[in-house]
């Protein structure tokens, strides 16, 4: 099948994310993938700087992950999780409890990050209803936050600068604190916490939970903020009797330089969401972890059951490859590798600071961000990167990369050089 033929067929019948079906930008058919490379149907190879939206941390076509799926497939591809269980789910749940903050002891599986957030929000509401405080149904989130595209998740995304303003009239009304302004590792500014503190003082009797992305605000702006904010937020939640939900969907499994970004502040949330890199990018799977207090309160004092049940919850194939991905990550010095990527990105993107259209360059772990003064043209800019042998998909004013951890220095240099060249061409 030719490249042009695939593109024409795609345009005729496929609706891509964040895309129009009338005036759609070009898409690039992928024939296969291996390591950090995507092979396009025209025969060219490009370096994937996005790790397939941040999840393919081990790259593509990894033999150990392939083997995990192939082995599980001979037993069963799927079985319902209502009233049944299986070893892959139990093994994965035990591993997640082992590696996440100590207070998290129960694991609820779901299909995607957005659903994991929905589950967390429902847990918080059901928890307080069980505690005899049904009025605590509001959520507290941060400006510049992004937590997903389903209705509940959209309701805790930034209602002004986020992607969901069209739906504001149908979304639940929640509270939003100012985003923390202190940079990661910057000198703490006490005023950063004042907005959060004031909202908790005034509305804690209505607020079920504070939900935030630890240290890294992802799709809401790629902002890296001080870990001190997390510490203060944990203290305030305890003081005002509000649950703390950590959305580690983007940051989990080493992306920020810690296994989980909460570790920068040495705090433990009441509820944590993980997804994306959970399966190494192989299959869709997410999990919402909770403390025994949350799970037992809902189970003993409330309805007796948690009111949620995805059809493909704890899919055996996904659980098997997720466990293999976590074990693969923990089997080598991933932290050293991420630190090396951080250094290469810092060095390679530094020259972007000299460009007149660049507002900021920031790097943390295996994340590199170039912030521009104006939004990029998504109809033309991806093709400019493909011409230079890389896959980078910006959004808004942000040109960023989150590559697989297996990427080598030469490949990172190619990514950084392409970012510089394309950004320079926009001046």
Write a concise keyword list for the protein shown above:
427 residues; Aspartate Aminotransferase, domain 1; Aspartate Aminotransferase, domain 2; 35% helix; globular
How is this structure best described in words?
- With 427 residues, this protein is of the alpha/beta class.
- It folds into two domains: 3-61 and 332-425, Aspartate Aminotransferase, domain 1 (Alpha-Beta Complex); 75-330, 3-Layer(aba) Sandwich (Aspartate Aminotransferase, domain 2).
- It is 35% helix and 17% strand.
- It has 13 helices and 16 strands.
- The protein has helices at residues 3-13, 51-54, 63-73, 87-99, 113-130, 151-154, 194-203, 227-239, 292-301, 316-330, 334-349, 381-387, 409-425; strands at 30-34, 37-40, 45-48, 104-110, 138-142, 175-177, 207-212, 216-217, 223-224, 243-247, 271-274, 286-291, 358-364, 367-372, 390-391, 398-401.
- The strands form four sheets. A seven-stranded mixed sheet has the order 4-12-11-10-7-5-6, sandwiched between helices.
- β1 and β2 (37-40) form a beta hairpin.
- It starts with a helix and ends with a helix.
- The mean pLDDT is 96.
């Amino acid at each position: 099948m030719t490249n042009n033929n695939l593109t024409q067929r795609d345009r005729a019948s496929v609706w891509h994310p964040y895309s129009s079906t009338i005036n759609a930008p070009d898409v690039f058919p992928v024939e296969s993938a291996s390591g950090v490379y995507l092979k396009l149907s025209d025969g060219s190879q490009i370096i994937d700087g996005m790790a397939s939206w941040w999840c393919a941390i081990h790259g593509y076509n990894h033999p150990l992950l392939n083997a995990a799926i192939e082995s599980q497939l001979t037993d069963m591809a799927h079985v319902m999780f209502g009233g049944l269980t299986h070893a892959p789910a139990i093994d994965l749940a035990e591993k997640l409890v082992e590696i996440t903050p100590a207070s998290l002891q129960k694991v609820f599986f779901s299909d995607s990050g957005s659903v994991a957030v929905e589950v967390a929000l429902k847990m918080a509401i059901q928890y307080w209803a069980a505690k005899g405080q049904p009025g605590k149904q509001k959520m507290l989130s941060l400006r510049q936050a992004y937590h997903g595209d389903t209705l509940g998740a959209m309701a805790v995304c930034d209602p002004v600068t986020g992607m969901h303003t069209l739906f504001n009239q149908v979304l639940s009304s929640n509270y939003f604190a100012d985003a923390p302004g202190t940079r990661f590792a910057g000198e703490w500014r006490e005023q950063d916490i004042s907005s959060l503190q004031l909202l908790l003082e005034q509305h804690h009797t209505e607020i079920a939970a504070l939900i935030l992305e630890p240290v890294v605000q992802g799709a809401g702006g790629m902002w890296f903020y001080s870990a001190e904010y997390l510490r203060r937020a944990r203290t305030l939640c305890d003081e005002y009797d509000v649950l703390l939900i950590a959305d580690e969907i983007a940051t989990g499994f080493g992306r920020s330089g810690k296994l989980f970004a909460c570790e920068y502040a040495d705090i433990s949330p009441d509820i944590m969401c993980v997804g994306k890199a959970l399966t190494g990018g192989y299959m869709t799977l997410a999990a919402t972890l909770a403390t025994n207090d949350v799970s037992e309160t809902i189970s003993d004092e409330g309805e007796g059951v948690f009111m949620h049940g995805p059809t493909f919850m704890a899919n055996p194939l996904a659980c098997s490859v997720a466990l293999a991905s976590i074990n693969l990550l923990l089997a080598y010095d991933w932290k050293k590798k991420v630190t090396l990527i951080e250094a290469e990105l810092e060095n390679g993107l530094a020259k972007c600071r000299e460009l007149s259209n660049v507002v900021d360059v920031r790097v943390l772990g295996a994340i590199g961000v170039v912030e521009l003064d104006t939004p990029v043209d998504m109809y033309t800019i991806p093709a400019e990167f493909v011409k230079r042998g890389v896959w980078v998909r910006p959004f808004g004013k942000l040109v960023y990369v989150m590559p697989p951890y297996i990427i080598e220095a030469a490949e990172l240099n190619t990514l950084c050089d392409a970012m510089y060249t394309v950004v320079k061409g926009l001046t």
